[in-house]
Amino acid sequence: MTVSLFLACVWALIATLIAMGPRRFHWPGAWGLIAVGVPLVGWVTYQNGPIWGLLVMAGGMSVLRWPVIFLVRALRGTRDTAE
Q1: For the chain, what is the total number of helices (H) and then of strands (E)?
Q2: Which helix (H) or strand (E) covers residue 62, if one does?
Q3: The predicted structure's pLDDT at residue 80
């Protein structure tokens, strides 16, 4: 296992620990995970190829699904209205 894949596994473990913590730490933890995860996906892709890079990216997107949903909504220009 390469160093980048090992660090991706550590990233997933830290994401799990943040998710089990108090709710007030979720969004700050998500921003930290995003800041570390984006370069990590690039490194995994560089060291192991595009298939592994896509798998790690899909795993990260499944963990951080709400920031991705909010990004897609912002790009589309749609918002939820509860009226």
Answers
A1: 4, 0
A2: helix 50-63
A3: 62
